[in-house]
Design brief:
By secondary structure, the chain is mainly α. The protein is built from three helices and no strands.
Length: 56
């Protein structure tokens, strides 16, 4: 299994959220979605992660 250093780097939820925002701005949408997927699963009550996932 190939490791992805962006996804496999531990961090607080806030750090992962910030990383997802930076990836989104860099137009790395696939990695952003993968990172946000983990946050959505961990914090299903948070709408901000879902809203970022829904952005075109």
């Amino acid at each position: 299994m190939k490791l992805n250093p962006v996804l496999d780097t531990p961090g607080t939820p806030a750090e992962r959220w910030e990383r997802a925002g930076l990836l989104f701005e860099a137009r790395d949408y696939i990695t952003t979605a993968q990172l946000l997927d983990g946050l959505v699963r961990e914090f299903p009550e948070q709408n901000a992660t879902r809203l970022l996932l829904a952005r075109p």
